[in-house]
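Possible regression after last week's pipeline update?

I re-ran a chain I had predicted before the update to compare outputs. Posting the input and the new output here so someone can diff against the archived version. Not blocking, just want to make sure nothing changed silently.
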Amino acid sequence: MESKRSRKSSSPRAKERELVYVDENRQLRRLIEHCRRQPALAVDTEANPMFAYRERLCLLQISSRSRDYIVDPLADVDIGLLAEIFADVGIVKVLHGAEFDVLQLKRAWPFEIRGLFDTRVAAASLGFDAPSLAAVLREWLDVEVDKAHQRSDWGKRPLSAGQLEYARDDTRYLIELSNLLRAELHEAGPPHMDEVAAECRRVEAMCPEPRDDDKNDWIRIKGATALDPIGHRVLRDLNRLRHRIAEERDRPLFKVFGNDVLLKLAKAKPVNLDQLRRSNALTPRLLGRYGRDLVDVIAAAKEKGPLKRLPSTRRHREEQLRGEQRELYEAIRAFRKNVAERRQTDASLVMSKQLMMELAKCRPLPTTFDKLADSKLLEPWRLAEYGDELARAIARASGES
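New output (post-update):
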């Protein structure tokens, strides 16, 4: 797409801004007083999924037009005090790739989040095909950000100056970026503003799924379903051992044993240390540390025999469609792809997978504009923009055209 650098903002840069590290409630209350007076706030979060068994929210970054705040949720601060700010629709909350952050915040606190504007979604709607924050900042503001600390362990304290600067970069430019993107969305005309608003409302309404503590995630390991019946039992029990070790050591699962290790052991089924050594599944360090536990689990699993039933793989809902519904889903997906290519935008903004599922299951079939309107599945703007063409695509796929 054509570069927008000529339209970069001239607002004060970071060196002229105040940075406040918030690790006490008195500082948090001052932050809230400042936020109440702002028309817009930029927000981001940092978590530690690569360094803990259960990831935790480790940082909350908030920027206004003049100040940058880094709030430490691991300190003695009551983050719940921010609920009024997040729920205030009169204060725009600017995020980039908001899904992760919204779910992190809601998982940690019962926040209602309103007034969301996602700069990643806006850039995608405008046809920008590399909407990472670094790429969007480079394109619209001619700003380069240092991503050296992208994979930091944000749960460790104290944070280095480099980590604080990285965290600050994730929010300090977002408000001025959002102003430029909004102007371009208005200039581009419908349906850009509508689809960005619809996606932001969808993300606002998201709720985190309950944590999967049933230890049945083993069935989603690539190659698991192809194992023999005893192998299923072995893999399940090895995975339970992995969960127990990971929880005790507060380590992510892959830093205990990789999926490839578990699968190899489930195939070989070694029941003594000599067989385990010959399997070449483990490094000498892992063999020495966990070898006895592993062969004990495998031997016990073999003695118990096959599982009575396999757990659900919990594949995407679209795989549950059968027959005519599946054919309709594929036709609707092809329609979405064609529209996205024509408009040079992200296909998910044309129509979500959830909406495509609902359309494929809808009865009576929405094969005309009026039937599509009667279904109430499409918002008025989406119906006006795509209704006729979508209804024709459904009619062709169902043989009613």
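Follow-up from reviewer: compared with the archived run. Residues 270 and 276 are 5 Å apart (CA to CA). Marking as no regression found.
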